[in-house]
Amino acid sequence: MRQRQGRAARSVSRRALLGGAGAGLAIGAVGAVAGERALAVRRPDGTPDLGTAAVPFHGPHQAGILQPPQACAHLAAFDLAPAAGRDGLRTLLRTWSATAARLAAGGAADGQENQIALDAGPCSLTVTFGFGHSLFDKAGLADRRPEALVPLPAFPGDALDPARSDGDLWVQIGADDALVAFHALRVLQKQAAGLAVPRWQMSGFARTPGATPHPMTGRNLMGQVDGTNNPKPTEADFGAKVFADGPAWLAGGSYAVVRRIRMLLDDWEGLPTDRQERVIGRRKADGAPLSGGADATERTPVDLAATHPDGTLAVAPDAHIRVAAPASNGGAAMLRRGFSYQDGLLADGSPDAGLLFVAFQADPARGFVPVQRRLARGDGLARFLRHEASGLYAVPPGAPEGGYVGQPLLEG
């Protein structure tokens, strides 16, 4: 880790490479556990200079999985060009990986540089790549497609738009500065010309680092603390829940489920706070479970057997945290890393807003699928949600320096 930090510290920022003044050098490295942000240089007054925070692109796992969601994000999918084949895919992934590594260190793109982020540092930029089910046929790799990478089943209540779902290649871009995130997106789009065609693109956001007086779990657009029960790297079975163990080219990688979930905010906001809390099973003010009593905090374990004096369950039978709990789903778990989105108004005047749900897991058949089936059948929150787009992608392990993401698949 020390050697990697040193390399990051020596990386020249975009502003230096492109002639800007006052360059700040990227010195940070990703924390050893999820929940730690990249380190940042401190200003003279002691406050962090978030622009200097850097997450190394190279490593055993791709960046953008273990790190907390950044303030700005773009999710995009591409379809491989008809004539690209395996050689074209190799060329594209080699180019994309080299570019992502340079941008993550605060450097300029080697090709298609557009100066959008001319005076910015790395700003915790991460770029994550995934492979859809359809990619393997188009690249002549059908015999190497993982058994777990099968199209997700239909779930009750789904209203999916095929034009905004699936895709051969998936890209997740996150950064704590909107221009840095958009810059990376535009460069990758331009570099794909002739090899892959954009299929869909979605943009999201999360809480900006430093917006709260102390680090805490973020809130979604319903105002709820969201992500309390995410698996923790300190748990003995964390790796088994999040990272795949095969096939060989995917070992150390993961599977990403992506869902665009519109929230019916007008209906939700019409509920009184205590009714919202019963739907979720947690207090809205601090995220404490309703089973925990007045002194409970967000981290108080949920007691699904707790009752009120009248014998009724403290956490309602259809409360979201009960229906989604690993204990209710045979231990199924996944590492959620979602972003909120807001895309204006629909024709009826209601907000087109909600959650870009992203979840990493070792096997979707043991993670997302059983949980979503149960949620679709019995979650009280489901009547306030509309699932409008969906995708499943195999996320290869990280690339070593000098290598590229997906190299073991394409050259093994």
Main sheet attributes: strand count, strand direction, barrel closure: 9 strands, antiparallel
Give the uncertain stretches in residue-range form: 1-12, 15-35
- The overall average pLDDT, rounded, is 91
Report, as a whole number of angstroms, the end-to-end distance.
27 Å
What is the tally of beta strands?
9
What is the radius of gyration?
A: 21 Å
Structural class: alpha+beta
* Shape by Cα distribution: globular
Describe the model:
- The structure is a single chain.
- The protein is of the alpha+beta class.
- Helix content is 22%, strand content 18%.
- It folds into two domains: 2-223 and 397-411, no CATH class; 265-391, no CATH class.
- β7 (339-345) and β8 form a beta hairpin.
- α3 runs antiparallel to α5 (178-191).
- The protein is globular and about 65 Å long.
- The model is unreliable at 1-12 and 15-35 (pLDDT under 50).
